[in-house]
Amino acid sequence: xxxxxxxxxxxxxxxxxxxxxxxxxxxxxxxxxxxxxxxxxxxxxxxxxxxxxxxxxxxxxxxxxxxxxxxxxxxxxxxxxxxxxxxxxxxxxxxxxxxxxxxxxxxxxxxxxxxxxxxxxxxxxxxxxxxxxxxxxxxxxxxxxxxxxxxxxxxxxxxxxxxxxxxxxxxxxxxxxxxxxxxxxxxxxxxxxxxxxxxxxxxxxxxxxxxxxxxxxxxxxxxxxxxxxxxxxxxxxxxxxxxxxxxxxxxxxxxxxxxxxxxxxxxxxxxxxxxxxxxxxxxxxxxxxxxxxxxxxxxxxxxxxxxxxxxxxxxxxxxxxxxxxxxxxxxxxxxxxxxxxxxxxxxx
Length: 348
Ligand code: PAP
Fold this sequence. Notes:
alpha/beta
């Protein structure tokens, strides 16, 4: 490395530290102490991610997670859509909302999903419900029941009342290669301008190391997978690829799991097909709200709809990376009964 390269590196590093310092200034003393005590690694769109309760979080997510853990009171009728980011969250939120509310909104002419992005209708605990509140408990009394929530929080870190109540969790995962590419493209599009572009090599190294927000991939997926085996009435475990293959079947499966199966009349009158069409990638991507709206301050809705395909990773990931990541995932999932091999058949 030349001296110029080195000074550039030091300058970037000190910029990172300044950004993180100003981020930390906004937080209480006690919380600052906690953050400073945690192992940290370079972040993707925040200066650092911190190892908290066995997973990697940006600092601004940790306080909302703690508040959620301390205060959230689940109701038996609640439904939680859980995912690692970029696994099909937006799609599953839309489908779940449409399934659960199909009697309230039988007409597809003025359905809320035509006017609101799914993240608006099914708020995240850590980014929305507790995201703004920090250490306060938000008032959830106005929410219609069943209440629908989303989360990227790993199973082990969910509020105890979610685990203890009869509320239901639907988890969706996606093969790690498409997940990585989707992450990489999304984060480069939504990162603050002051952050440098993340190269595929950097993204790959961090993904393999597990230092993605809410990662590691293997631990996140396995947490929900194991719970779905132990408590199949509690956790429904889905794969993005299976939904792509037969979404009608999975829409019916979700409805059954949530205790609101479609009647024969509904099936024959096309209710399932209508939900599938309403929530399809093609339909959602073209809605005005998803072309021009935004979630929160920073993320434009359009970035949640890129290609929506299975296997797009082959256009980006070279064989050397395929080999390394396949090995890691195989080791992670070994003996669990969970596999993504069908989704990357040219591997191993
Ligand atoms: P999030 O976790 O940040 O909310 P998430 O919705 O899980 O993101 O992931 C976005 C991916 O789902 C994108 O995949 P891609 O980058 O490979 O294209 C996006 O295109 C895809 N997606 C979004 N909506 C749908 C949909 N209705 N049907 C299928 N795929 C979708």
